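Our preliminary data section would be incomplete without showing what the modeling component actually yields. Below, a chain of 174 amino acids is followed by its predicted structure, encoded as tokens that our downstream tools consume directly.
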Amino acid sequence: KNGAILYSSNYAETWIQQDSGILAPASTYDLYSIYGYGGGTFVAVGLNGTIITSPSGITSSWTIRASGTTNALRSVTYGNGVYVAVGDSGTLLTSGDAVTWTPKTLSSSPNLQGVTYGYVVSALTGVGVPTFVAVGSAGAVFTSIDNGVTWTVPTVSPNTPTQLNAVTFGALAG
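Predicted structure:
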């Protein structure tokens, strides 16, 4: 809230609050998500299209970046050399350097709440495909297998009116 960032340098035993040092008035820059050190840069996103970056994440060395949107950005991730940020009204941005952000067009405009990167392994071939997945309102799911260039609705979707707030990849045991 208000541009504050918490960090821990001792394996999450103690947490320290810091101000990013650049966001004023702070009440217009609530931060909703941070991605730690993908591609050598910490990226945080939030209210009013806020994107800030830092090489260390624990000092006041945060720099505000132009997102090109005033929509709230709700989540950010990194994978395969690409940052992806998602937010309200179908906002989806990509960046190769966390400095210059490019909007992507989706087939619909749900509020997007979460985004992640991982490998989808084919049950038929056993081969993993690097994939970004974004989720949001009314059960929205979008995927990209070309480093965030194009986004599609999966053939089999959750088909649920439920809001999806987060997404992650994991491994099945067995």
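The longest strand covers residues 112-121. The radius of gyration is 16 Å. Preliminary results of this kind motivate Aim 1 of the renewal.
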